[in-house]
Amino acid sequence: MRLKICHLYPDLMDLYGDRGNIISLVQRCRWRGIEAEVGLISLDQQLDFRDWDILFLGGGSDREQGLLYEDLCRRRENLLSAIEDGLPVLGICGGLQLLGKYYQTSMGDRIPGVDILDLWTVAGSKRMIGNMCIEADFLPDGSHGKQNTLVGFENHSGQTFLGKVEPLGRVVKGFGNNGKDGMEGVHYKNVFGTYLHGPLLPKNPHFADLLLSLALERRWGKRELKVLDDNLELAAHTYMVNRLKQQ
Ligand code: GLN
Predict the structure, then answer these.
(1) Catalytic pick from 6, 29, 93, 133?
(2) Which residues, in sequence order, are bridge partners of residue 41?
(3) Sign of torsion over alpha carbons 157, 160, 166, 172
(4) Residue 42: which H helix or E strand, with range?
(5) Residue among 99, 4, 114 at smallest CA distance from 50
(6) I need a surface site. Which of 68, 93, 101, 220 has the fewest CB within 10 A?
(7) Distance separating alpha carbons of residues 61 and 156, to the nearest angstrom
(8) Is residue 66 classed exposed, middle or buried when 0-12, 13-18 and 19+ CB atoms within 10 A define those classes?
(9) Is 29 in the active site?
(10) pLDDT for the residue 141
(11) CA atoms within 13 A on the CB side of 247
């Protein structure tokens, strides 16, 4: 079996090391004998989202978002078609913002998003920075029992507000989407958007495996993933959950 992972704008949207999520997905495939192909696609490069099994968009500064939004908007219909067909998408921070209607910078410049998700973002006067923990109901029982938390690190000025779309989870500790409504991220079909950097997936192996399971099922039919020894990963996860809950 083989999975094709598209890393979109890796040269522009990787200010926070989110490519570590790609490394995690590839390694968790290799540990299972699944071939993983990574495509690095950026501005003006040919891409049909329907050819890919997972789409990843990392985070970046306002400047980089301003450099790529026109390219992304040109890809809207193809991306929407793939998302409606169940393409698993992980968008981190700026990657989440660009899937919405717009991102308005602190200078008042409005960067259009691809307008696939009913959300919009307005930069606030202060950056929301720090470790974050959320509770998320979409996470299935993992190989190591129920895991309904995600941990990571946030660093954004954008305050995201959701329209008719579900959040990814509820903030346990941290700011989340806007520091006001207690919600974090966004979830629509197999699209997962979050402000959790870290990178996210190494300390949240249950989420990594959910993305892999969704991608395998969509491409190859339902498959049971071989259980991996995630004791180290989950020890790091649990340490952060406990530390943040005690603050
Ligand atoms: N530039 C956006 C903001 O500051 C996104 C930042 C990010 O991707 N961490 O909100």
Answers:
(1) 93
(2) 8
(3) positive
(4) none
(5) 4
(6) 220
(7) 9
(8) middle
(9) no
(10) 74
(11) 12
Residue of 155, 131, 130, 148 whose CA lies nearest to 58: 155
Indicate the angle between helix axes 62-74 and 76-84, nearest 10 degrees.
80
Above 70 in pLDDT, residue 144? no
CA of 35 to the centre of ligand 1 (A): 32
Alpha-carbon distance of 86 to 237, in angstroms, equals 28
Right CATH for 2-246 from 3.40.30.10, 3.40.50.880, 3.40.50.80, 3.90.550.10: 3.40.50.880
From ligand 1's centre to the CA of 27, what distance in Å? Answer: 27
Q: Name the residue ranges covered by the structural domains of the chain.
A: 2-246
The C-alpha atoms of residue 140 and residue 78 are separated, in whole angstroms, by: 29
To the nearest 10 degrees (0 to 180), the angle between helices 231-246 and 205-220 is: 130
Q: What is the pLDDT of residue 143?
A: 62
pTM score > 0.85 for this model? yes
Please check the confidence at residue 246 and state whether its pLDDT lies above 90: yes
